[in-house]
Amino acid sequence: MNGKQRKAVFFAVLAAALYALNSPFSKLLLKDVAPTMMAAFLYLGAGSGIWLVGRLRRFSGKQKTEKPLTRKELPFTVGMVLLDIAAPVLLMFGLKLTTAENAALLNNFEIVATSLIAMCFFGEKISRKLWIAVGLVSLSSAILTFENANSFSFSPGSVLVLSACVCWGFENNCTRMLSSKDPMETVVIKGFGSGLGAVLLALCLGENFPGWRHVAAAMLLGFVAYGLSIYFYIMAQRELGAAKTSAYYAVAPFIGAGLSLLIFPRVPPITFFVALALMAAGTYLASADTKPEE
C-alpha cells in the first residue's frame, strides 16, 4: 500500500467515525423532530456547513484548485441528490421503529449494496475475500432483521434501514463518478439539493417544522455526520474506488452501535451478539481486500 492509499484509508476511517454519530444522536432528536424533517435538516446542515468551510478557505487563500462539475456529470449528480432524499428519510423512519444499535449495525449492509452495484453497473472487480465478506454481512443483516426468531416475523424498522442502505449503495456509486471533481462542490449540491427536496416531501406528508433549537441541533449533527463525513468519503474514493472505500467505511456501524448502547443502556438479545460477530468477520475480510483496482 503506497502513501496515497494509506492517506485514502485514513480519510475513509475518519469519514466512518464521523458518520457513526448519526444513529444515536438522530434517535435522540427524533423524539421531538418528525423523520422526514430530520432527514432534511441533516442534509441542509451538511450543505451549509461545507459551503461555509469552503468560503473560509477561499478567504484565507488556502482553497485548492479543483475541477468543477460539468454537464457530463449531470445524470450522476441528479441521481445522487434523489437517492440522498430517499435514503435518510428511510433511515429516520427505520430509527423510529427499531433500536439505535440495531440500525447502526445494519448500516453495514451498505457494503453489500455498494459492492454489488459497483460490480454490476460500473465494472469494479470483487475479490474472493470481498465475496465472503458480502455473504457474512448479508447473513448478519438477515439475523438483525428478524424481530422474533420463533415466529420469523420481520422488523419493519430493520427493513426500512436496509432499504436506506440499498439507496446509499446506488448513491455511493453515483458519487464515485464525481470523485475527481471538487468534493466541496459535490457535498454542497448534495446537501442543499437533498435537504430542500426532503423539506418539500415533509410538507407534503403534513409534518410540522421543529423548534429552532432542534433545527440547530439537527443541522450541526448533519454538518459533522454527513457533511464532513461525505467530504472525506469522496476524498477516499479518488484512490480506493467505491467498493473498497465502502469496506473501510464499515467500521462506522460498530462505533455507532457502541455509542448507542452507551446513550440507551440495555442488554441486547443474543441474536445481536451473533450478528455482531458475523458482521465483524465480514468487515475484517472486506477491509483486508486492499489490492489496487484493475
Tell me the layout of helices and strands.
Layout: H1 3-19, H2 22-29, H3 35-60, H4 74-97, H5 100-106, H6 109-122, H7 128-145, E1 146-148, E2 153-154, H8 156-176, H9 183-204, H10 212-249, H11 252-263, H12 270-288
Antiparallel strand pairs: 1-2
Helix pairs in contact: 1-10, 1-11, 2-5, 2-10, 2-11, 3-4, 3-9, 3-10, 4-8, 4-9, 5-11, 6-7, 6-8, 6-10, 7-12, 8-10, 9-10
Summary, kept brief:
It contains 12 helices and 2 strands. The protein has 294 residues and is mainly α.
Q: What does this entry look like structurally?
A:
- The structure is a single chain.
- 77% of the residues lie in helices and 2% in strands.
- By secondary structure, the chain is an all-alpha fold.
- Strands 1-2 form a two-stranded antiparallel sheet.
- α2 crosses α11.
- The longest helix has 38 residues, at 212-249.
- Mean pLDDT is 85; it is low at 290-294.
Assembly state: single chain
Radius of gyration: 18 Å
Low-confidence stretches: 290-294
Shape, per Cα inertia axes: globular
Helix content: over 70%
Order of helices and strands: HHHHHHHEEHHHHH
Average pLDDT: 85
What spatial order of strands do you see in the largest sheet? 1-2
Please report the distance between the alpha carbons of the first and last residues: 15 Å
Would you count the extended β strands for me?
A: 2
The chain-level structural class is: mainly alpha
Largest sheet: 2 strands, antiparallel
